[in-house]
Write a structure and sequence with these properties.
Elements: H1 4-96, H2 98-125
Helix pairs in contact: 1-2
């Protein structure tokens, strides 16, 4: 009987240690679950806060793109109108001053030929 008491005590100590370990595991699991739940809620809050910001940014980018397209259209239209006016003015000038127009065209052609000749000679020397 004297030997049974230490065996019973060590058995009791082992049982207590086992229960303590089980409680520690359960506490750790509960803490991990709570931390995960808190993290999940924080991520959901962040997503809810970020969604309007992202939508506003997308709207701003879209509006900026539309303004850019409209600006390009308007500039293109203005260039077409100016080119048409220049063409009309040139045609009117040729109608009213045909001799001067031919002389200007000949002088421009001669100047271009001289420039091309200079450029080709400088390339041949190199």
């Amino acid at each position: 009987m004297f030997l049974n008491k230490p065996v019973e005590q060590s058995s009791s100590l082992i049982e207590q240690a086992s229960q303590s370990a089980d409680q520690a595991i359960k506490s750790t699991q509960q803490a991990a679950n709570e931390a995960l739940q808190t993290l999940t809620e924080a991520m959901q809050d962040l997503r809810h806060q970020a969604t309007p910001v992202v939508e506003r940014a997308a709207d701003s980018v879209s509006a900026f793109a539309h303004r850019g397209v409209d600006s390009v259209r308007e500039t293109s239209h203005q260039l077409r109108v100016k080119a048409m006016h220049a063409s009309e003015n040139t045609a009117n000038y040729i109608r009213h001053e045909p001799v001067k127009s031919v002389l200007i065209a000949a002088a421009t052609g001669a100047a271009l030929m001289a420039l091309i000749s200079l450029v080709s000679h400088s390339r041949n020397r190199s």
